[in-house]
Design brief:
By secondary structure, this protein is an alpha+beta fold. It is built from nine helices and seven strands.
Length: 294
């Protein structure tokens, strides 16, 4: 059985005047639901906000309650949490000034999937679903703009779920590799091996030996081997940028691997959310069936 955490229930003060200012305007602009609206439409939504002051710790809403509003945090912190199967409260995240939560309740009005609790006093700007629905239905252009923004988000999600993201980073990197890149990798790989060191020492010893033996007949590079030093300097000068090119390609490969890991994690998160939603629906159906049987 879930145990309700003990919180202090303070006096709640709700202003009659709307809470609309530059801060609230910027906060609304960050909400994906309103991101595509014009400045005039954002200002109209901002005028519907109602400030609500929480003096001390208080539960804003509980998981399972009907969603009837979204909240913008003007001041303070809010903890988002769920209750596990053992009845323990598990904190998901802590939101601070400038964050928002509960925005999806404006669309469907369904049950809250998590609980929100003010941790130590806060001031929240509240947009009720009733005001939101009245605002949307008053202007068809606003409704179409918001539907278009939601459709774009759903399309991006569908594309992510449709395509396989568990790809091999080496394969992805190879597909972007040019002939010059492969040559740079090959040269850098050989230049950083014992084979290169052994071959270089062998050629240097032959060079010195030939010029020492031909010294009496005026060798082509007598001591102090100026030509040898020039050749070694050229090789070193060319090898350094080639090695840097290879290192840059390795960094690019690491970025590809990080992007693939992010996509995999995001897809898993979406799939888990879908699984949880389906399980909750099955639980509700099973509970309804059990109640009818009783």
């Amino acid at each position: 059985m879930a145990v309700e955490p003990q919180v202090v229930i303070p006096d709640l003060h709700e202003d009659d005047a709307s809470s609309c200012g530059p801060v609230q305007f910027d906060q609304l602009r960050k909400v994906p639901l309103f991101s595509a609206l014009s400045n005039d439409a954002i200002a109209q939504v901002c005028a519907l906000l109602i400030s609500r002051e929480y003096k001390t710790a208080r539960r804003v809403f509980k998981a399972g309650e009907k969603g009837d509003a979204m909240y913008l945090i003007e001041r303070g912190t809010v903890r988002i949490s769920v209750t596990d199967a053992d009845g323990h409260e598990v904190s998901l995240t802590e939101l601070g000034e400038g964050d928002f939560f509960g925005e999806m309740a404006l669309i469907d009005g369904h049950e809250r999937s998590a609980s929100a609790t003010v941790t130590d006093g806060a001031r929240l700007a509240v947009l009720t679903r009733e005001d939101f629905v009245a605002f949307v239905t008053s202007d068809t252009q606003v409704m179409l703009t918001m539907l278009g923004a939601m459709a774009r988000r759903l399309r991006r999600t569908d594309n992510l779920l449709r395509h396989r993201v568990a790809r091999n980073a080496n394969t992805e990197n190879a597909a972007r590799t040019t002939a010059a890149d492969r040559a740079a990798d090959l040269i850098a790989s050989f230049g950083g091996s014992w084979r290169f060191i052994g071959l270089a020492l062998f050629l240097i010893m032959i060079w010195i030996g030939l010029n020492t033996w031909l010294m009496q007949q005026k060798g082509f590079d007598p001591f102090p081997y100026v030509l040898l030093n020039l050749v070694l300097g050229i090789i070193t000068g060319l090898q350094a940028p080639i090695i840097m090119m290879s290192q840059n390609r390795q960094a690019q490969k690491d970025r590809i691997r990080a992007d693939l890991d992010y996509e995999v994690n995001l897809k898993n998160e979406l799939l888990l959310s879908e699984i949880v939603t389906r399980l909750q629906q099955q639980d509700r159906k099973r509970s309804a069936t059990e109640q009818r049987e009783r």
